Description:
- The chain is mainly α.
- The chain has one domain: CDP-alcohol phosphotransferase transmembrane (TM) domain (Four Helix Bundle (Hemerythrin (Met), subunit A), Up-down Bundle), CATH 1.20.120.1760.
- About 80% of the residues lie in helices and about 0% in strands.
- The chain is built from eight helices and two strands; from the N terminus they run αααααααββα.
- The protein has helices at about 10, 15, 20-35, 40-70, 75-95, 105-130, 135-155, 165-205, and strands at about 160, 165.
- The chain has a two-stranded antiparallel ribbon with strand order 1-2.
- A hairpin with a 2-residue loop joins strand 1 and strand 2.
- The longest helix is centred in the last third of the chain and has 41 residues, at about 165-205.
- About 30% of the residues are buried.
Amino acid sequence: MTDGSANVGRYGFWFSNLPNFLTLARIAAIPIIVWLLRDPSPKAAYLTFTVFLAAVLTDIADGYLARKYQLITTLGKLLDPLADKLLIVSALIMLALMARKPGIPDWLLVIIVGRELAVTGLRSIAASEGMVLAAETSGKLKMILQSVGVHGLILHYPLVLGMRAYNIGIVCLVAGTAVGIYSAWNYHVAVFRELATRRADGAADG
């Protein structure tokens, strides 16, 4: 698939960069979500749920547009997963600080944040070596599960399908964390395998 920058003349600047604008809109929604999560009331929970859902929908939209119209860019490959991490981690930290019981287990939050930091560091290493670490299917599944989990944790109290929203949120969050650890392992294996191959090729050429 070609780099989206090649399609600027075909679609025009604004449409060619629409996936990146949607990603930036997702990042811009984070301070709003953080501010709303300062209020533990049910009314604020519904409002936060709506804003968070809108932010998640921009993730779906930018991915669809980028693939359908071949608007995938290097900036998008780097910015999109970063926006996802900021959105999820910011919401989870604020939810953990809320005076609502039960809350998010400390160990789960530590694992999630640690995983995201590890993958972000890996992306920096890959970028310094001229590699772009695009999202894998497992990484996308992790984002879906964590997004559903955060939605449930934001609502917290209401019953959904006969279950407490909090319980649905925790189950999805744990499942998403398990998938996230698996995807992080795959990312690390792929990057260090590629680096080892490059070193071997360089030694052979030398």
